[in-house]
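pasting for ref. prot 1 ->
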Amino acid sequence: MPEEVLDLDILRPEKKIVRLAGKEIDVSFIPCGLTWDIDKIARQLYELDRAKAEEGTTEETKRAFDLTVDLCVTFCQWKHKEMTREWFVENVDIMQLERLAATISSTLERSYAGAEAYQKN
């Protein structure tokens, strides 16, 4: 009798790597152990007063920067323990930071969309 195999690897998205300051970071998925932490930070970023941040209000802009760094550190430290807040501040410019944060947020959105679609089936 043939063995039945439930292949859950087919649900995992295609691997996508971001190279940042010599580190290779897999941004294709968010491990379940990080989902809630990443979601919490992403929601805080979303809820910031965008108008104040765009006006250049120092407090709101600093808060947005801090949350963006927190998001990247939380995500990256899962596999790269050395990627601390200090590491990001010393090795990454603001454009790189923003792009990585946007990629992480996009991955989170895609994983939620995939989970929703899977539940409907």
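and prot 2 ->
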Amino acid sequence: MSLMDRVLTKGKNKREKIAVIIGLSLVAALFIISGSMSCKKAPPETEAVSESAPAQEETTMKEGLNEITGLVKIGYGNYFYLPSAQGFDIGFPGKIGNEDASILTGKEVRVKALFSRAMHSLLVAESIDVKEGEAWNNVYAKPSEAKLEGYFDQERRQDYQTLKITNINKSEEWEGKGKGKLFGRFVSVPPAQGTNQKEKYAIIISDEKGKEVGKILIDQITNYAAYYVKKLRLFDKFWFYFDIKETVDKKVRAKTRELFHADVVFAGLY
């Protein structure tokens, strides 16, 4: 006689038998579920996608001079990023000797920098020391009266309207707008063969289905914008803020899908 039969024969009435059947069925179900769960692998850890996507609370800075120490993650132009200064970029006027901030990438630094609520996401370095062995060596001291160039104040975003470009022949979608922003992909444009032209850059824009609509030719890009392009390197596409310049000739547009020229002032996730 099975376990189920022996239990049922002890039941005094039909209601007790039904209750026992339900109870044993629940026990069996729990065994199945627990066995199934034990066979599943733990989900892999989510990879951090960008220094710009805050995974922790922003660092608290006091008004005035602050000292920050840490390993430089990214440096370009006049700007660099320290994870220990979460939520802030660090900029400096001038150069480090004859070099820009890229020379700091991967090095441990000690920075004395000014924080002002007028530039709430930026620290301006007064001095930069680099650790070499057990010693700190000063590599930068802010020149008197020097000004930081290229910084894009976040409040200026509202001055740049979102463009809706649907066709290379609809130049009215960008002409006369002055300032604009678009979601796109940053690419390099190699120079034509047999020329001495320098490498150029462009923004590829696509429709909702991912089909390329056209490209915007970048004439100039600020150090701050180029720094953010590097900072967002783990993203394929992001927002570009730019000043709109001359439109590409219609016949050339038909061949190259190049829409217009622009000067890029900022790049970001929104």
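The chain has three domains: 3-39, 64-141, 154-268.
The mean pLDDT is 82.
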